[in-house]
Here is the input.
Amino acid sequence: MNHPVSYELDGQIATITMDDGKANAYSLDMLAELHSALDQAEADGAAILLRGREGRFSAGFDLKVFQEQPERIAEMVGSGARLSERLLANPRPVVAACTGHAVAAGAFTLLACDCRIGVDGQFQIGLNEVAIGLTVPLFVVELARYRLTPPAFDQSVVTGRMWSPPEAARAGYLDLLVNPDELYEVAAAEATCLAGLPAEAHAATKQRARGAALGAVREAIETELADN
Here is the structure.
């Protein structure tokens, strides 16, 4: 079976690539492999470069689980929630190379990364849960509240608005847009730059700066899991 997640260590940079050959949906297998990759990056003490396949960062949670394995929905959402929390709290820098569409869980993965570099094109980025009849998880509300501008937060969470890459950059999903053929080079350069920060100072300051947001996200995760 092909693995939807690959891991490559080059010096101080761990590149984690999501590629299921399709929409990069967060299946239970992909989520398990993402957590395993984060475990390896932590063991290696590496900064992280997280990227998708061409045209697709991630389509979010695998809807087949909602349709065919409803008894595993809580497990899937819980794993996705922990993934976001781990990225937001990671002691080493985390750079996302957003290769295209980033929808629902794909979008809140972006919100959890330190630096988000995307490409312009006919792509959609955002939290579409309400638009497809789902209630936005509490931890996503808190993550979006922390990273998005106030108007974009309300439109994203309450109305499920989707954004083009330039709009997503203004809203707070992305930090920088580059040409598609420059994405990996720019993202790798940014990861290398951030990896050079003094590790202890970076980790301690990240915890101070994000303490309130992390507390809110973690409390929301526990509430969400308890309710399910």
About this structure: The chain has a mean pLDDT of 95. Residues 102 and 125 are 5 Å apart (CA to CA). Residues 5-227 form a domain with the 2-enoyl-CoA Hydratase; Chain A, domain 1 fold (CATH 3.90.226.10). The first strand starts at residue 5 and ends at 10.
